[in-house]
Amino acid sequence: MLHYIHNQGKYQIHNHHTKAYNPLDDHILYIASHILILQSEYAAGDWSAIYARNTIGVSVSEASYCYLVFIVSMGVLRIFGSKINKKYSEAEIIKWVPRFGAVGFSIFLVLGTLIAREHRNVAFISSLVAFTFLGIG
Are the CB atoms for 105 and 130 separated by under 8 Å? Predict the structure, then answer.
């Protein structure tokens, strides 16, 4: 049975049928999420240019723009994160921002892939929007 418990000013879900709450579990999740975030940054750095070059068909110099919009959007979100955190709780941010980024990335990347042969410029703009969403998420 799940219960909400009050622990150091925060409400947490506690299941009495499992082991006791261990604060170290949060640190392990925190460390694992940071490793995954760093891995996604490295993957976006490599994969964005490969995708734009091979799938969309842009030049090598144009392909670098995908990574540029990714890293800039990620930086902007980090800079303005405190303002966002004043309006929304951390739980809401953690819940909705990655979903927003993933859905936007998926929609625009698929769109860009589907129209790449007929409309290269529109597909490239769609991929730029996709990698912007990836940086936000």
Answer: yes
